[in-house]
Amino acid sequence: MYSGSCLCGTVKFTITTKISDIVFCHCSLCRKAQGSAFATNGNVEAKYFKFISGEDNLTIYPYSEHQTKLFCKTCGSPILSKNTQTPDTVRVRVGTIESDINETPEAHIFVASKANWDEITDSLPQYTAYKE
């Protein structure tokens, strides 16, 4: 089981399954949302993701026609995104998880739009768009 929270601790959640498809996303939108060179995201089956507290303190950003991003209203921490095309899965910002994580990142995605000041130095596969 994994536990996580936002920066201020208002939003708390648990995950009771493995985290799959962990990737470092270098797209310009993730960089802006994260305020960093990339965002680290992983998929979780929605039925195994539960808010413990603070769900009413989330704000929703309609990112696209099918995708929304959820942030803490108080501290701005990005928590997860949901996609209506994959309603049984949520995409969690792995940095919000406080527990040690057993799974490891699998790839870098959208490296064609990575920040020019960022250098990828590990041996993970790199994809110009989504992981193929």
Secondary structure elements and pairings:
Layout: E1 2-5, E2 12-15, E3 20-25, H1 28-34, E4 39-45, E5 49-53, E6 58-62, E7 67-72, E8 78-83, E9 89-93, E10 107-109
Parallel strand pairs: 3-10
Antiparallel strand pairs: 1-2, 2-5, 3-4, 4-9, 6-7, 7-8, 8-9
Structural features, described:
The protein has one helix spanning about 30-35; strands spanning about 1-5, 10-15, 20-25, 40-45, 50-55, 60, 65-70, 80-85, 90-95, 105-110. The longest helix is centred in the N-terminal third of the chain and has 7 residues, at about 30-35. It has a single domain (about 1-115), classed as Metal Binding Protein, Guanine Nucleotide Exchange Factor, Chain A, CATH 2.170.150. The radius of gyration is 14 Å and the shape is globular. Helix content is about 5%, strand content about 40%. It contains 1 helix and 10 strands; from the N terminus they run βββαβββββββ. Strand 6 (about 60) and strand 7 form a beta hairpin. The mean pLDDT is about 95. By secondary structure, it is mainly beta.
Helix content percent band: under 10%
Broad structural category: mainly beta
Number of helices: 1
- Tell me the CATH architecture: Beta Complex
Spans where pLDDT lies below 50 across 5 or more residues: none
Which topology does CATH recognise? Metal Binding Protein, Guanine Nucleotide Exchange Factor, Chain A
Number of separate domains:
1
**Biggest sheet character:** 7 strands, mixed
The end-to-end distance, rounded to whole angstroms, is 29 Å
Give the H and E element order.
EEEHEEEEEEE
Strand order of the largest sheet: 6-7-8-9-4-3-10
Q: What is the count of β-strands?
A: 10
* Radius of gyration based on Cα positions: 14 Å
Percent strand: 35-45%
Estimate the global geometry from the Cα principal axes.
Answer: globular
Level-1 CATH class name: Mainly Beta
Mean pLDDT: 94
